[in-house]
Design a protein that fits this description.
By secondary structure, this protein is mainly beta. The chain is built from 2 helices and 14 strands, in the order H-E-E-E-E-E-E-E-E-E-E-E-E-H-E-E.
Length: about 240
């Protein structure tokens, strides 16, 4: 083989190496850990889910139709039957006008001794119509906007597709670090239980909720905010 051919092959190999390395840098490290995806919703069954306060899936409210999961009436929050520690969660959502919803994670029993109550809760990847919701449209990148860690961390560099178009959300949780992604861009990163996390939490309605966001593992939850938001292609990977 001539030295010119060898030289060409070497240059081609270097280009491939640089390209692959660039792709790795654009992806969260968690992607490299495991290829074991668990499908939570594939457009048909809901056997992976139950009502938040039920043993089974709600009899009414939540509907599976045309490969989509959505609310048509009050059905209550739904949670995964299993709990997850470190994970990568991927889901697609499509908003309707002024709709509000959310995906919560590390959801478990939370005690509030100040108010003497026990509830099931966890941090939330907010999903809301930033463009038209009356409480959000004037602050479309704030602490309550889409892809925020609700009331705790506002998203940055966000590009939300409008009503009627599909968006892709991702949540990564590994070794205490949580990332929110929207349409391929990381928009939030924080450390659970850090001084910064606790300071921010102390300024919210969750200030007296013990273990909020810092449980070792918890359920994934889809909220019922009485609004129509479509979900599809929900899957999770344990890390």
């Amino acid at each position: 083989m001539s030295k010119f051919v060898l030289s060409g092959l070497f240059v081609f190999a270097m280009i491939l190496l640089i390209a692959c390395d660039g792709k790795k840098k654009d992806q969260p490290a968690a992607i490299q850990v495991s290829d074991e995806w668990e499908v939570l919703f594939d457009g048909t069954g809901v056997e992976k889910w139950r009502g938040k306060n039920l043993m089974d899936f709600p009899d009414s409210g939540w509907v599976v139709e045309d490969g989509l999961l959505f609310l048509t009436a009050r059905g209550g929050d739904i949670v995964t039957r299993e709990k997850y520690g470190d994970f990568e969660l991927v889901f697609e959502f499509n908003l309707t006008e002024k709709a509000n919803s959310g995906v919560k994670y590390f959801v478990d029993t939370i005690i509030n001794p100040e108010k003497d109550w026990i509830q099931i809760n966890g941090p939330e990847y907010q999903i809301i119509d930033d463009y038209n919701h009356p409480e959000i449209k004037d602050d479309p990148n704030g602490l309550s906007s889409t892809a925020s860690a609700y009331l705790l961390y506002a998203p940055e560099n966000k590009q939300l597709k409008p009503v009627g178009e599909w968006n892709t959300g991702r949540i990564f949780a590994k070794d205490g670090v949580v990332e929110h992604w929207l349409n391929g861009v990381k928009v939030v990163e924080y450390v659970r239980g850090s001084d910064d996390f606790e300071r921010r939490k102390a300024e919210t309605k969750f200030k007296d909720d013990r273990n909020y966001g810092i449980v070792e593992s918890g359920h994934i939850l889809l909220t019922d905010h009485h609004d129509l938001v479509y979900f599809r292609n929900i899957k999770i990977k344990r890390l």
